[in-house]
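hi support,

uploading two proteins for the ticket. first:
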Amino acid sequence: MKQNYIIIILIVILGFSSCDKPDPIDIPDPTPTNVALAGGDFETWIEFTQGALTYLKPSGDWWDGLNYLAVIGGPVTYERTSDSYQGDYALRLETKAWGEDLTIPGILASGYFDPDQTIGENLMIGKPYDKTPTRFNGFIKYQPADNDTLVIFLALTKYDAELKKRDTIATAEYTNTATMETYTPFNIDINYRNQTTPDSIHIILLASVSGKEMKGHDGSVLFVDQLSFTYE
């Protein structure tokens, strides 16, 4: 009889245990988050003056291009425009001829202009950055001249003090030759080579694919607005 009581008690305990056991919780994956890039909405600009030259440049110290060359007679190749995707302003880049033999690309980069360097090497690209986004996003319009190609390039790097060289941690690149009459989104994956935390970011916005060699097609125009990063 005593044995029967023990069996009954065990059945009751097991029954309550199975009834009280909570259902497994389905935890969703984290939702990707978009974060605006510093100055990437191109809403705020400041007036830069050098001698008789005056032009607008994005505020803060994140962005610069080759407009300083206008001090020695070069063209102004980046400017503020009210033709924006969102907000009041956006960035307008235009590749322009300088004399008969030289073309200045429409370019803006994360960095600064160094007038002491030789022409073509003035734009010092790179800003401190230690985050690891997964995608680079924005909105663009493009009017290529003579089948030109726009380029948007990003690299995350880290300086190796022992080897005295800069290692590339991740890259992302977007190119397009098509005419875009209205703002079109771009979303490019940032491809990591390793899991090292970067210390710098290099972003280049180019209206002409040959702009890195101070070439390009005169008249190519690229509009850029609302740059952001996606973090998983």
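and the second one:
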Amino acid sequence: MWGKTTDSGAKPLNFTPGPTPASNPDPAPAGAFERKQTPVAPPRPTASMGKETKVKGDVYSEEELYFDGDIEGSLEVRGVLTIGPNGKVKANVKAKELVVKGSIHGDVEASDRISIMNGATIVGDVKTAGIVIEDGAYFKGGIDILRPETAKKPEPIAVAAKA
């Protein structure tokens, strides 16, 4: 296998390189092949509280939060809130988007969407624009589906007449 040489009758490939950029007779105009990079949004900061974390009181976060511990009180997040599989929340919860993999006992409000994953539990009333309840999730309470805010009609612009 290795180290054996056999003549299979295959001919070696002859490779001739193409013209080099210096010898190219028709160079492209300057800027013709420049790539414009679109600015990449900076990664969203994410805070995390592990499964050994226990909180009594109120938690407020402007950034995404992954919470996998125990909390009694209230929990408010301006971005995405994920309750991990070990998370046990006995609090009212408010977030832009909520993903539940653990348990919540309390009222929940999410302006965009709530996703209750397989094995998760919510006992309490829910207010949201959209909800996903996977098979195997447990939910007990009322659901209030919010309508997206209707676009405000622009007010007519008053034009002063010249006399």
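thanks. also noticed: Residues 68 and 87 are 4 Å apart (CA to CA).
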